[in-house]
Design goal:
27% strand, 204 residues, alpha+beta, four-stranded antiparallel beta sheet
Length: 204
């Protein structure tokens, strides 16, 4: 079918290496390979939901993100305690940070995502953040777009960002010039640019 949906509680509950930790292998249940993905559930307060570990010694040097799906968890990160109610994202970017979490409420569930930091974000992650601020808060839009150009200095997105920056400055001729240069080199991008609500008027 090309897609799959399931409820967390429908994923098999697996005892983790004889401990009180309950692992639910979400990645395997969904059949995806985009990132390591597993959930941990607790029936009672005080039960471990993330075992104490570092990724530098015990893992694969992954960056990890933990998402409290329901209930409440108490994280300990290199000795610092963090209260994390449902809806909290906890990013552990340094593999050497020691992390552990216990349920602060019965029925707590935490989703753990982990992988090497090799993912290449879509250009739209920056452009769509900047777009609402082009006219209302140009400085903010420009900062976002300059970050895009710093992360992706090569390729057409740098010129697209330059066009948006010109728009934020109110410099429509500059935006047109940036797009004209891009289209001259990459005419195949014209349909994509023409489909953008802010850029399409500059192509006429």
């Amino acid at each position: 079918m090309g897609w799959k949906a399931l409820a967390l509680d429908d994923v098999e509950a697996v005892p983790w290496r004889g401990s009180e930790l309950v692992w639910r292998p979400v990645r395997g249940a969904l059949g995806t390979r985009i990132v390591g993905m597993g959930a941990y559930t607790a029936d009672r307060a005080g039960q471990v939901v993330i075992e104490g570990h570092t990724e530098s010694e015990d893992g694969l040097n992954h960056e990890e993100v933990y998402i409290v799906l329901r209930g409440r968890a108490t994280f300990t990160l290199d000795g610092a305690e963090l209260d994390a109610p449902a809806g909290t994202f906890v990013a552990v970017l340094d593999p050497a940070v020691h992390r552990r979490a216990v349920a602060a409420e019965p029925g707590t569930a935490v989703l753990a995502l982990g992988a090497l930091p090799s993912f290449v974000p879509s250009d739209s992650e920056w452009i769509e953040r900047a777009r609402p601020h082009l006219r209302s808060d140009p400085a903010r839009a420009i900062a976002i777009l300059e970050d895009l150009r710093a992360v992706k200095p090569d390729g057409p997105v740098a010129e697209v960002a330059a066009a948006f920056i010109a728009l934020a400055h109110g410099d429509e001729p500059g935006a047109r010039a940036a797009l004209a240069g891009l289209i001259a080199r990459r005419p195949d991008l014209l349909p994509v640019l023409a489909d953008d609500q802010d850029l399409e008027p500059l192509l006429e």
